[in-house]
Request: fold
Amino acid sequence: MRNLLAFLAKYNHWMVFILLETISAILLFQYNSYQGSVWFTSANAVAGKALGAKAKIESFFSLSKVNEELTLRNLYLEQQAKTLAEKLTEATKDSDWMRSGQFEILKAYQLIPAKVVSNSLNSPDNLITINKGTSDGVEQDMGVACGSGVVGVVYMASAHYAVVIPVLNLQSKISCRIRGREYFGYLSWEGGDTQTAFVDDVPRHAHFKLNEWVETNGFSSVFPPGISVGKIMHVYNSPDGLSYRLQVRLSTDFSRLRDVCVIDNRQIKERLEVLRAAQDSLKLREEQ
Reply:
């Protein structure tokens, strides 16, 4: 208390000055309409700027959730577009469109949104780490995609994280087909350019054009059919001359990859198991 009194006694002239200034400001702005309006306008401008800054900060921190929702929506919309193409094929019998029954809508599968926490691009054996694991339903050998196309396959998973072998890995090999043509091959990467990969084993009798799309064919238990892989840029002969080799510009930009979805492949496995069981049954009948 003694220190407070000493402080007030030492600086009493400043206290009186501040008090008089405050009283003068109140009298000026309260009893003079022009000065009051100027004060009101200035205060509103400052408050507006403060609220605008607050809204921008909140919007920035909400972008993460928005990106996850957009990734899911892009995947769903892509598959819905293919559904319309399939129905058009049934109505017009146009062989240039995808044939009926060649894919299932991705919405029928459970999708697990995840974020990329690490991503390498400069190694021959690149790996991606995502922030979802076994506690979220992620398991080994599940496919991973983003809003623009295929990403890779889950290699291993812990409780809260998983490591993905992306397309940009020398060990990656994904079964795919030319969209609308049904000719299939195997996608692989040979290092170097992160936007280019190759599709091998495309049959010599295949008919297709440059800039046509390559997509997953659904022949494996990892990816459902119809997920984009990339566009055909060049066509080469295979070393043995028995097939084509396609150079593909990948639809996924791995340098900007942030949000992905893990595809629960249990339904895909079940479908393939039923199909294989039916094929085995037919073989037994033919043998009998």
The CA atoms of residues 1 and 7 lie 10 Å apart. Residues 92-105 have pLDDT under 50 and may be disordered. Residues 1-31 form one domain. The chain has four helices and twelve strands.
